Structures are given as C-alpha cells and as structure tokens.
Amino acid sequence: MKALVIGSGGREHTIAWKLAQSSKIEQVICIPGNGGTADEAKCKNLNGDAVEIAVSEKVDFAVVGPEDPLSEGIADSLWAAGIPTVGPKKQGAALEASKDLSKIFMEKYGVACAASKTFTDKALALEYVRQHGAPIVVKADGLAAGKGVVVAKSVDEALKAVNDMMDGEFGEAGKKLVIEDYLQGVEISVLAAVSVTEKSAASGKACIKAFLPARDHKRLLDGAKGPNTGGMGAVCPPQDVSQNTLEQFQKEILEPTLKGLMAEKMDYRGFIFFGLMLTKDGPKALEYNVRLGDPETQAVLPMMDFDFADLCLAITGENLSDFEMKWKPGFQVAPVAVSGGYPLKYPKGKVISLDLEKISREGAKVFVAGAVKNSEGGLATSGGRVLACSAHGETFDEAWKKAYRALEGISFEGMFYRKDIGLPGAAESN
Ligand code: AMP
Ligand code: GLY
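# glycine complex -> structure
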C-alpha cells in the first residue's frame, strides 16, 4: 500500500516513520515532509497540491498532520477525490478552529470543563471581567498559532487582554472571545483515535479509543520557567497520572465527546487531542485539537505495539471498535532541541552533526522538525524546534537517560534543550 502524510514537522516525521514500519506499506509520500522524512526508509518527499498528488500517485490513504489544512477542508476534498483520509472533515475540525464552538459543544454534551461565557461586545466583556475578578482566562475564539490564550492573574491583565484581542491583535480570530474560569492543576494530553460516521453511529460501532496519556512541556526553561514555546519535549506516560484519573477522563470527557460527535452527525475519522487540566475535582477538558499533538506524537507513537497503518485503515474503514491497541510496557522520553534564540529570533542553516553510532547505541530515534537536507546531504536547521530525540526504557529513569545520552551525540551551533523533560517539577502547574 501507499500512504500519504501531509505536513512538515516532527509529528509528521513520526507518523511517516511509524507507517513505514508496517509490512503493508511500500511507500510513504510526504507533502512536503522535511529533512527527516527525506532520509526515512520507504519515504519520499514531494511538493505540490495534496489532492492532485494523492490521486496521481494512487495512494491508498492519507493522514493529515496539522490543523490548518483540516480546518480549510482538506479531508473533505481528499474524500471527494476517493482518498480515505485520517483527519476530520471541516465540520469536525471546527472543534479546534473555534473555541466558542468547542465550548458550546462541551457544555451541550456534558463534557467536564471550566464554566465560560462568550463575547463579541467589548464593553460587555470588560464588564464581565470586572465583576468576575481574577484569576480568569481570556481566549481568542479563532486559531491564533497557540498564542490566543491569556491566563490573567489580575483584573488589569485580563482587561488588557480583552482590549488587545478585540482591537485586532490576532485579526478576526480575536473579535470573539471566550472568557473562562481559571482551573488549578497540572496538564496532560490524551491523544485518541476517532471513527464516527452516521453509519457507525447507527450500528453502535462509532468509537473513540484513547492512547496512553502524555505530557508536553511548553515552557522554554527547566522547572517550567521562561516563555511559552511550541513544545520542548514530551513524555509518555507521565509518572503522575493515576488509573482513577484515566477512568474519570473516560466517563466525564471522552464518552460525552463521543455522544456529541454522534448527535451532531459528524463524519469524524481521525485523531482527537484532549488537553486536560488535572484539578482536585478530577480532569477537566481545556481544549480539543483535531489532530495529534506535537511533540506528544514523538513520545506516544513509539510506545505503540501495533501496526499504525492498520489503525489508520480501521479509522477510515469504520471498524475502529474492533481494533485492539497494545502498548509497550515502560516509558518514552522525547526532549526537543531548539535553535538558540527560539521562541524569538533564531538563525537558520546551522549544520547539524549527528553521532549516529552513539544515538543507535542508546536505541534512540531522532525525529526531525525544523531541519532540511543541505547540499552535502546532511541536515541543516530551518526552524525553531529542530528535532526530538526519543528513547524507550522499561523504567522512566532508563528512558530518560537513554534520550539524554543520545542527545549528547547531536550538536549544532546555538543548540538548546531542557534537561528536565518528564521529571517531577517539570510540568506546568497553576
Ligand atoms: P488552550 O489553547 O485553550 O488549551 O489554552 C492554552 C493554555 O492556557 C493551556 O494549555 C493552559 O496552560 C492554559 N489554560 C487554558 N484554559 C485554562 C483555564 N481555564 N485555567 C487555567 N489555565 C488555562
Ligand atoms: N503539544 C501541543 C499541541 O500540539 O498543540
């Protein structure tokens, strides 16, 4: 079979790598891919229109990595062209693209989450903040590249966020605001496979199957300090998540979400990402993403002890409910190496030196995010988050040591990484 992967980050390199491990897969076409997929076994990078390439290359199915093409309806176009696609259609993708819509959905179907109100009128929003008091959370409704949320510790900070967003800081994305109660706790991410269609809902086969939980570390510096980033590393599973928490998540968040997708008659065949806050009253949903997390994917997919191509086919073929997910025992730790200066200004084109022997001695895998092949056939940086070094261990300690020892075999000018991915105290908490 031939698979197509759309996207250019570390998540997409990991998806392509995991697909390539399947004996069913002869080739994985990556549009546009990156310097990692360029060298990955069975993988080939191509540039161009995804639907045209999918048809001309006769791919058997496609996996869409990022949210932007999904919210623009790429899954609708691919299905219309006869390509089974992992990734929701536009209607489902709106669960990430509009915070207002996702909150309406959560409240309508009884998903455990923070209370919130939506505003399009600035004066009313400011008045609400003054009456409510702080802490309080102000969210731009639309996609704002992960920057549209302000967790305000004071009323003044919240008022400024309302003014900035409604005055156009994020363009149209901030013209509507969701103002939400503050939740205290630590965060985790639960990624899941979803296969919901009208047909599967009618036959009782619609389902969402959660993967092992994971945690992304979003702050730049050790101890969850410094500015927010796109993710400095991930662990799967986090050491502090109890079975009880996962059961509560299943009952109070996952099952109501499934009920909602069915009731709204969605054709949602893809992945969903539950951003959760673990509060003293149990897990609460912070957000839905309609795709796998980055860098969570780099820690979660290597833990899968099953064929990822089979999972994709079960999702598109509406038989996910019969699919059995088996997981490796132990832990996966995946610190991310970033360019010096990230998340602000950083240089590009820095040559990456890889001690492949050392990396393979540790059993680690490098997933490339922001790097391209240079003219000498090596890798050069092209983004802020450059790569993740992902390793498995029977114990957390073993996984952690392998990942970090392997990372010592990687260098480029200005390279920076957190030293505490997965350790106690590394998780963000309010
Ligand atoms: P979101 O894009 O909605 O997940 O928000 C981005 C980040 O803001 C989350 O990962 C949390 O760290 C924080 N956040 C969002 N909502 C809340 C809330 N209700 N209480 C506390 N922190 C929040
Ligand atoms: N790791 C957070 C995200 O993918 O949005």
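# post-check
Residues 2-87 form a domain with the Rossmann fold fold (CATH 3.40.50.20).
The mean pLDDT is 96.
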